């Protein structure tokens, strides 16, 4: 993730390199679950570029950076849970 655009911490655009719709869509979903997030949207400027821009706007007094950190932590927890469930299923698998 590179720098942010703007100086108002309640409304920032984050640019991710080497990312696309996969990360953009899940981050947008997780951000919008936060009641302090008023808007979250992403765009991939051009299919030939490996960049994804994610814009976050929060309610007054809330930091978009903090909301991004929370969403990223949520995504990490989801990935950890999925890894545990898949590992458990593979370990329990009995071929016929």
Automatic annotation (TrEMBL):
Top-level lineage group:
Eukaryota
* One MF annotation (Gene Ontology) recorded for this entry: protein dimerization activity
Q: Does the keyword Transmembrane apply?
A: no
InterPro entries for this protein: RBP11-like, RBP11-like_dimer, RNAP_AC19, Rpo11-like
Residues forming the DNA-directed RNA polymerase RBP11-like dimerisation domain are 12-84
Task: Specify whether Transcription is a keyword of the entry.
Answer: yes
Q: Name one GO cellular component term.
A: RNA polymerase I complex
Gene Ontology BP term (one)? transcription by RNA polymerase III
Pfam families for the chain: RNA_pol_L_2 (PF13656)
Alphabetized, the UniProt keywords read: DNA-directed RNA polymerase, Transcription
Question: Could you say which protein family the record assigns here?
Answer: Belongs to the archaeal Rpo11/eukaryotic RPB11/RPC19 RNA polymerase subunit family.
In Swiss-Prot or TrEMBL terms, this protein is called DNA-directed RNA polymerase RBP11-like dimerisation domain-containing protein
């Amino acid at each position: 993730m590179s720098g942010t655009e703007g100086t108002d911490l309640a409304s920032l655009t984050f640019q991710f390199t080497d990312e696309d719709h996969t990360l953009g869509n899940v981050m947008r979903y997780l951000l919008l679950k936060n009641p302090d997030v008023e808007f979250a949207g992403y765009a991939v400027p051009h299919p030939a570029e490996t960049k994804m821009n994610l814009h976050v706007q929060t309610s007054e007094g809330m930091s978009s950076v903090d909301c991004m950190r929370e969403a990223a932590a949520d995504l990490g927890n989801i990935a950890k849970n999925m890894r545990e469930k898949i590992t458990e299923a593979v370990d329990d698998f009995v071929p016929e």
